[in-house]
Design goal:
The structure is a homodimer of 397-residue chains. Chain A is built from nine helices and 20 strands. Chain A has 397 residues and is α+β, with helices and mostly antiparallel strands. The longest helix of chain A has 16 residues. Chain A is globular. The interface between A and B is large, with 116 and 116 residues.
Chain lengths: 397, 397
């Protein structure tokens, strides 16, 4: 055997990829490109296309006709073709945020072929990019100790199936024997157990805020609130079945009823501090609704409650015992008042009035809460910001 | 406060998504659709397009000119437009496998907008679908106990940075105090710590084979072999920087040198059985190369070695001590021969001759190994199959 063989496999291993790029005719396009002034250029190679648009939440929203009447949808901008067939659009300087976008090529929506970073929100994939600075630095992966992010299946005797969840354990968890408080962090309608960790950047926020000493080290449990699913699309025995937007049984009381199974699993399998003083629950939209009803159903379970752009009351057809005796259960919950009952909503949120009415109810009964009103509506930007504001208030005693 | 409020938020929460679909003009297209005979129909709504093609590994490969000469690339098929502007192609009946594909619309490569399931292979995103049956049933998520899949950062004093890896712990790990053997499973060039869990379906294979009693419950550690990166693209402090195909330092000995740091982390932080008899290492392509050189560098560390379509020898410019004294180190490794030294390769693999030469070397020296030759070349199909064949041979004593 020869002692020295030039290892050409290094080159050949990447052949298929390069070959495909050659086959598909794309030159190396950089998109998106963030400039020093925080403006961003988007590019798309499409020499034969007649029109290429970019749409995303970095553009001012526009009003559009929808099946539900006029509503705000992401803005759209025309891209301009250069002599090489590359379409281009440069945004104005953008403020720090995690943004999403897609292209529309001759009327067909598509993701940016030059950007492999995509996130799924319900049934849509969009590309993402991050503008650094300000609170968005919490969303970056910084050079700090990182917690572990696990996909875990727990059993629910109440439902009779196993269910998938995301568990964040803080840096150092594996090594020590220390016990930790637990935050249960719930997603909105159409989301799943991946939503807070992906769109919500929750694991980056936790790593960064714990590293800066702004937040107590804690375990964070991100359950799946869609009781008709065992886990996120593609992650269950349904295989690669398309995501369904309108899932049944999301707000019929079953999720709330099953919730102690998740808490029991955590307390039996992780080094939690298994008492009310060391448990928090928070959620966005439907997850806020779940947090409200779980925390009043089990008043001895959670000392910290966060309602982010939360739905409040069930539909009038809801017959679950979970939603029965609303007044009595809230009275019981606030008799031994939680350390923190935090309500946050944007002033453009379609749930604003429902939250206002709920705050009035709490005021009338003398139930203490903290209220935070932000700009904007029912969007991830707000929920990420709320998380950075909610976390430092937990487990300080 | 009114007792009963119709909860319209249920509808409005999904507004944005539906509104976008309305804006973008797409009707609800089902793609891909698998028929009872296992043929698959692909669909794409593009009324203005002049040509729509589908390309993927479910089609017979074709020879194409590449920067490296003629080479096999995925086949391409014409789709046909119906009067509603929906382009369609139906495959022949497909054998069980995890397949990938993309569309080419008027020369522009794009993923299927009706299929949110995509996998990144190096710098390309492709859609995926699974045809059930035969060995591909191991790749399904079945209703069996599921292990936990964790993204973990370990410290490497050798390199001076933290590094990200994927750790699979078998179902029941969290609850008990049982100790487990460990398989280290390494990716190929351009892959990362996510590759085996995603493209390789390794966690599904383990869940299913353990549940059937065909494989010993074990911990599986999927490291990142790209020493220039701390983790996969998008998962490090580099942020959403585009993936780089030709990373430096992948095969210069640094990864092999650092490897005991990963083993030490596992033995310190997980309930491993920390001896040679309960450690295996295997990898594909560059990961096979790493497995070969790590196992001969640390002959007391691994009793089971798997080389899947493996690169064998370093480039002639490699000066690392890791690659020095090749003969002497192999002699030492085989003096206390491993329980299993398993070499598998496809008969069309570009590394076939290098493996043949290596087997001749092993034969000449009387070093025992088991050889498995399969059809096809340097592709994930083979590596998934090799995994299902390698796992049952581990830790049986």
């Amino acid at each position: 055997m020869k002692k020295l063989i030039l290892f050409t496999g290094v080159v050949l291993t990447v052949l298929n990829c390069n070959a495909q790029q050659a086959l598909w005719g794309g030159s190396q396009i950089v998109s998106p490109e963030t400039h020093p002034d925080k403006s961003v250029t988007f590019r798309m190679y499409a020499p034969e296309a007649e029109s290429v648009l970019v749409t995303g939440d970095f553009l001012a929203p526009q009003l559009a006709d929808t099946p539900y009447g006029k509503a705000e949808v992401p803005g759209v901008a025309d891209m301009v073709k250069d002599p090489n067939g590359v379409w281009e659009f440069t945004s104005e300087a953008l403020s720090p945020e995690l943004y999403s976008y897609t292209f529309i090529v001759d009327g067909i929506r598509m993701t940016d072929p030059s950007n492999v970073f995509q996130l799924r929100d319900i049934a849509s994939l969009t590309n993402v990019f991050l503008i650094d600075g300000d609170y968005a630095d919490y969303y970056r992966i910084n050079d700090v100790p990182h917690g572990t992010v696990s996909k875990v299946w727990y059993d629910s005797p109440t439902i009779g199936t196993d269910r998938r969840m995301t568990v964040y354990t803080p840096a150092g968890y594996e090594k020590g024997d220390r016990r930790y408080p637990v935050l249960y962090l719930l997603h909105g309608m159409g989301g799943d157990e991946n939503a807070w960790a992906e769109l919500g950047r929750a694991t980056q926020v936790l790593d960064n805020m714990i590293a800066r000493g702004e937040v107590e080290p804690m375990i964070v449990v991100m359950t799946n609130g869609n009781i008709a699913m065992e886990g996120a699309p593609g992650e269950t025995s349904l295989g690669f079945a398309p995501p369904t937007i309108n899932l049944p049984n999301t707000m019929d009381g079953t999720f709330e009823k099953h919730f102690p199974d998740a808490v029991k699993y955590m307390d039996s399998n992780y080094r939690t501090i298994a008492d009310k003083e060391h448990r928090a629950i928070a959620g966005l939209s439907m997850g806020g609704f779940h947090s409200l009803h779980i925390s009043k159903q089990y008043p001895d379970m959670f000392d910290y409650i966060g309602l982010f752009s939360s739905a409040i009351k069930p539909g009038k057809d809801s017959v679950s015992e979970i939603y029965a005796d609303y007044d009595g259960k809230l009275e019981k919950q606030f008799a031994d008042a939680p350390q923190l009952y935090w309500i946050a909503i944007g002033n453009k949120d379609f749930l604003y009035d429902a939250n206002k009415e709920y705050r009035q109810y709490l005021d009338e009964h003398g139930y203490k809460y903290v209220y935070r009103e932000s700009p904007d509506g029912h969007i991830w930007k707000n929920w990420r910001i709320y998380l950075t504001e909610f976390l430092p208030q937990l487990f300080k005693d």
